[in-house]
Structure formats: C-alpha cells, structure tokens
Design brief:
The protein is of the alpha/beta class. It has eight helices and ten strands. The chain has two domains: 130 residues, HUPs (Rossmann fold); 125 residues, Rossmann fold (3-Layer(aba) Sandwich). This is UspA domain protein.
Length: 277
C-alpha cells in the first residue's frame, strides 16, 4: 500500500512536517508513515553500551508518539531503525507516494546536515521529496520551476498539487550569468514553454495557469516567486552527472532560503497526457 512518509527527529520543524504530510495523506486517502533514524553508535567507546541504545530507542518512540498526535486522525504507521537518515528515507521512498522532511534538525549539526540530507534523498528517491520550512506554510499558488521538456515529471506533479488552485509555471532563458537572452530567444522560449504546458493544462481545466519567463538565474527567480507560494515544485536530476550536481546545488540553495515548502521531483518523465478529441 502507498503511504506518505515523514521523517521524525523530535524537532519542532519535524512536527510541522508531520502536519503538512498528514494533510497530504488525508487528501490521498493513504496512511501516514512516521520514520525515525536512530544514529548508529561508534564501536569501542566506553559507556556506549546496550543500555545507551535502549535509552535512545525509548526516546525515539516518545518522539514518534508525539508526532502521531499531530496527525489529525490520519491512520499512522511507525518505523524506528538504526540507520542514517538519507538511506532510511530513500528506502522508504520505494513504496511511498511522497517523502516529507522538516528544514531543521534537533541541533546545530543536524540543522547544517539537513539540507544535504534532503538533496541526497531527493537525488535518489523513487518518489517526490518535500522539505517543509521552520514556520507554518501560507496559502498561495503552487509554483513550478522547469528548465526543459525533461521537467514534465515536475510539471505533472505541480498540476496534481494545485488541485483547483492557481499554478505559476516559471522558466528561465539564462542558466548562468555569461550572456543575456535577446527578444527572439525569449519569444522562442515562451512559445516552447506554452507547448510543453498545454497538454497538462487541458487535462486539468480546473487549474488556473500562468506562464512566466525570466532572463535570470533559476534559483534567484524561483526564490522570488516562492515568497507568495504555498509550494515550490522543482525537478531533481539524480546522481552521477554534471547536470545532476548542478541541479543539486540549485536545489540546496532553494532548500536553505525558500520560505515555502519545496518539492523535489525525480525527473523520470511521465507520458504526455493524451486527450480525447
């Protein structure tokens, strides 16, 4: 059975992530799965014995119980396992509709690592990953940033998330600062964007769609549009390629500085919808 998975670590932000994930689980009519990664203990250090592990596990269960109290009546499943967070959540993604994380951990080091963990999970996840900021999300349109036809996976998920709301599809004509686009290049890019979006727009007539083309760096443009958004959706190109690393750095910048939840969608492009005539 599909689930919405949320990472739990005892932090205030994790509880916000649980509430956001519970809302998604309710909308999808699937269970909410609470996952906690218990840090592996180093070997050979005095005092790190079975009793220490038992206390850590007891604390994990308390955090999971607290998180379950934020689920608002959604069916809840638990998982606490000795593992690193990124591999655990990546494994969970194989049977999940969505993986959700808070933007800050329980301590300074955890907070610093969370962004890289989210990018790592987003790069390897089998399903979209959402990072929820350290404040309650505000109402607003869904914003989707796309760079090419390969980003239709992100576009498809953005239309699904809009659910009758407004969707702003944002694309940039300049991936770096070395050159400025001319008017013809901007017009061609706008026409290509419209052709890419059109099949999805016709499939979701209840979604109001605005198209935005800017000659600027993608991260800067998306942060600007995300200020009034309820969700920012971007693609994650995965691992092992230069494009993947560049997109990961853009995604990490967005995770650290964007005021709304950010969804990283694996770019395994779906079939463009075929509509009855």
């Amino acid at each position: 059975m599909s689930t919405v998975v949320v990472g739990v670590d005892g932090s205030r932000t994790a509880l916000r992530a649980v509430r956001w994930a519970a809302s998604e689980a309710r909308a999808r009519d699937v269970p909410l799965r609470l996952a906690h990664a218990e840090m592996p203990l180093p070997q050979g250090i005095p005092g790190l014995d079975d009793r220490t592990r038992q206390e850590m596990h007891k604390q994990a269960l308390l955090w999971l119980d607290e998180a379950a109290g934020q689920a608002g009546g959604v069916a809840v499943q638990y998982r606490a396992q000795i593992a690193l967070a990124a591999p655990l959540l990546t494994a969970e993604s194989e049977r999940a509709d969505l993986v959700v994380l808070g933007s800050r951990g329980t301590g300074t080091l955890a907070s610093l690592l969370l962004g890289s963990t989210a990018v790592a999970v987003g790069a390897r996840s089998s399903c979209p990953v959402v990072v929820v900021p350290d404040h309650d999300p505000k109402p607003g349109p869904v914003v989707c940033g796309i760079r090419s036809v390969d980003d239709t996976a992100a576009l498809a998920r953005a239309f699904e998330q809009a659910r009758g709301n407004r969707l702003v599809v944002v694309s940039t004509t300049r991936p770096h600062l070395l050159s400025a686009p001319d008017d013809q290049a901007t017009a061609d890019h706008s026409a290509h964007l419209a052709r890419t979006v059109d099949p999805w727009r016709r499939r979701h007539p209840d979604v109001q769609v605005d198209l935005v083309v800017r000659g600027d760096h993608p991260a800067h443009t998306l942060r600007e549009w995300a200020r009034g958004a309820s969700l920012l959706v971007v693609g994650s190109r995965g691992r092992g390629t230069l494009a993947g690393w560049l997109h990961a750095s853009t995604s990490q910048a967005l995770l650290h500085r964007t005021p709304c939840p950010v969804m990283l969608v694996p770019l395994k492009a779906p079939t463009v919808p075929t509509l009855a005539r």
